[in-house]
Design brief:
Blueprint (H helix, E strand, L loop, with lengths): L2 H26 L2 H18 L22 H13 L9 H4 L2 E4 L2 H8 L4 E5 L8 H7 L5 E4 L8 H9 L8 E3 L3 H9 L4 E4 L7 E5 L4 E6 L1 H9 L2 E11 L2 E6 L14 H18 L11 E3 L12
Parallel strand pairs: 1-9, 2-5, 2-8, 3-4, 3-5
Antiparallel strand pairs: 6-7, 7-10, 8-9
Helix pairs in contact: 2-3
Length: about 300
């Protein structure tokens, strides 16, 4: 075993120790005390990485401030990751009211009607927690992620085993598309990102002079399965309090092979934009997707 492999083994062992330590501590401590202890841990981790570089916010967000990349953003990410260690505990009385869910009726209605559900999300705020909060509400959602299943970390696989509906995977990777399609067809909602750089893209207008680069995969998947396509956003309110908002489903006439998919993209983005604009500091993971629109040609069409 070389030093590189040894380092990876030590790091994996440390992560597993932390995983089980948090799970034990959560049963003994109040949420407030657990948060205080882990806040200090997150502060040290963020401090060791130094001060993040400044990130300008595009006018497409309607944001007046130009820089919001702060150490606190990293701390929130570290703290929220801890909740992935506790998937089944989030349904307990002391946790359940920590996330207010709005718009669940559209998912339940689709399920009653036997329609698959595709939930469109972006890498905004605490997006990784979407599937866990949905499962606490009785919705066995899974997330389609980039990469390969073999690279899933051990603590993540362990967490899946504790999750509500353990028989249904919480994550599918791109090399598991057949399984993901099968789960979706069986009635289990699938969360799919709109801001992945891979695959076919479309430029969705955002206000005046800006566009948002959106992957078309989420639209194509909904069309293929004749599924309801519903926007999904998680807002981090701090101190482990969240809002999960499910927007209005994309109109069926926008989800045909012959339709202009840009209409579906506009609908999804219009449902999400108010949250982006209210919390621009939680958009840093996909800020590059906002781009200046190409200049118009003399005939009034975009030069792009």
């Amino acid at each position: 075993m070389n030093f590189g492999d040894l380092g990876k083994r030590i790091n994996a062992t440390r992560k597993l120790w932390f995983f089980f330590s948090v799970r034990r501590a959560e049963r003994k401590l109040s949420i407030q005390n657990l948060y205080r202890i882990l806040w200090l841990h997150a502060f040290v981790r963020a401090a060791l990485r130094g001060i993040p570089a400044a990130v300008p916010l595009p006018a497409g967000l309607g944001a007046a401030k130009s820089v919001r990349a702060v150490r606190g953003w990293r701390m929130k990410r570290y703290l929220n990751q801890v909740l992935e260690y506790l998937p089944e505990r989030l349904a307990e009385p002391k946790w359940i009211d920590r996330c207010q869910i709005e718009g669940l009726d559209s998912v339940l209605r689709a399920q009653r009607n036997g329609r698959p559900v595709v939930l469109a999300f972006s890498h905004f705020s605490a997006y990784r927690l979407s599937r866990f909060w949905l499962r606490t509400a009785g919705i066995p959602a899974a997330t389609l992620m980039a990469g390969e299943a073999k690279n899933r970390r051990e603590w993540e696989r362990l967490g899946d085993g504790f999750s509500p509906f353990p028989e249904i995977p919480t994550v599918f990777y791109l090399d598991q598309l057949r399984e993901a399609n099968g789960s979706l067809a069986a009635g289990n909602p699938l969360l799919v990102a709109i801001d992945h750089a891979a695959g076919k893209q479309m430029q969705v207008p955002v206000g005046e002079g800006w566009t948002f680069q959106m992957a078309t995969g989420v639209v194509r998947l909904a069309i293929r399965h004749r599924a309801e396509l519903i926007p999904c956003v998680v807002i981090d309110e701090g101190h482990w309090r969240f809002q999960l908002k499910l927007g209005r489903p994309v109109p069926a006439e926008y989800l045909t092979a012959e339709s202009d998919w840009l209409h579906a993209g506009k609908h999804l983005l219009n449902e999400m934009l108010p949250h982006f604009r209210n919390h621009p500091d939680q958009c840093l993971d996909f800020i590059k997707n906002f781009q200046p629109a190409p200049p118009a040609t003399p005939d009034g069409k975009s030069s792009g």
